[in-house]
Amino acid sequence: MDSQQTSPLQELTDHRLTEGGVRLLLKRDDLLHPTVPGNKWRKLLPNLAEARAAGHTALLTFGGAYSHHLRATAAAGRAAGLRTVGVVRGDELRTRPLNASLAQAADWGMEFDFIDRGTWRRRMSAEVLAELRRRHGPAFVVPEGGSNAAGVRGCLPLGRELAGSGADTVCVSVGTGGTLAGLAAGLAPNQRAIGFAALTHAPLADETAALQREAFGRSTGNWRIEDRHCFGGYGRTTPELLAFAAEFEAEHGIALDPCYEAKALSGIFAELGSGEFRRGSTVVMVLAG
Ligand SMILES: *Cc1c(COP(=O)(O)O)cnc(C)c1O
C-alpha cells in the first residue's frame, strides 16, 4: 500500500437494517492488503518514514502470540527493506513451534525475542529497551499495535475519506485506540465516532484521548468508547458471536475478524432501533481487517 491508497465504501443490504430503517456502509480497509489488516498499514507507514528519516535499518516492536501488528510489521519491513524484530509476550513460547501467525511473520523475515510477563509490563522502560537494543542492535521502536503519534496521524486520512460519506456515525472496533484516535480527528464537524472495545481494559478512553493529544495537541470531543460488546475480553468469543460471524459470512461473503469486527458489528445490530442508531440515520462500520 502506498500512502495515497484509499479503500472502497460498500452499502450492506440486510433485512435487519431495512427493518431498523438504518443505512449501513462498510469501509473496506480489510481490502488494502491480502493478509494484514489495513489499519495496521495506515499506522505503520508513517512509522516507516520516521525510521528511515532517522537512518534506521531495523524496526523493533511488540505483540502477543497472535498479534496482527507483528505480522503487519514483518510484511511492511520486508516491503521497505528494513530488518524487523518482534518482541513477543510469554517466554514459555520460546521452546514451542511457532503458531501460524508467527510463522507467517518469520517467513517475512521477522526475528523474535520471547520475554516473560514481568519484563513485558516494563517493555517500554529505558532499561528494557536498552537490553533489547543490546541483543538485537540499534532499531526504531514502535509500540504495540503501532499506536504512537505517527501511527495515529496515519489514520487521519481514514476519517477524511469518510467526511463526505453522508454518515452520521462511524463505528470502529478498538484494541489500543490508535485507529479511533486518528479517524475521529478526520471526520466532518457533524459526524461522531463510536469505538467498540474488543477487550476489557478500563482506561481505553483515557488512552485514546492521550493518543489524540500526542498526535494533534488536543483531544476531539466527537467520539466515545462502547464497552458492552466485548464478549468477555480480548480473544474471547461465545457460541452466539461465532454463529453471528458464520451467518454474516454465508449471507454477505465477508469473513469478520472474530477478535474485533465481529464484536463491533454484532453490537451495531444489537443496538439497531435504540437511540444510538435512529431510523433514517446512516452508519459506517470500518472493517480494519
Ligand atoms: C488492530 C486491529 C483493530 C484495533 O485497532 P487499534 O488501533 O489498536 O484500536 C481493529 N480491527 C482489526 C482487524 C485489527 O487488526
TrEMBL record:
Keywords: Pyridoxal phosphate. Gene3D superfamilies: 3.40.50.1100. Pfam families: PALP. Its cofactor is pyridoxal 5'-phosphate. InterPro entries: ACCD_DCysDesulf, TrpB-like_PALP, TrpB-like_PALP_sf. Residues 8-289 form the Tryptophan synthase beta chain-like PALP domain. The keyword Protease does not apply. PANTHER family: 1-AMINOCYCLOPROPANE-1-CARBOXYLATE DEAMINASE-RELATED. Belongs to the ACC deaminase/D-cysteine desulfhydrase family. This is 1-aminocyclopropane-1-carboxylate deaminase/D-cysteine desulfhydrase.
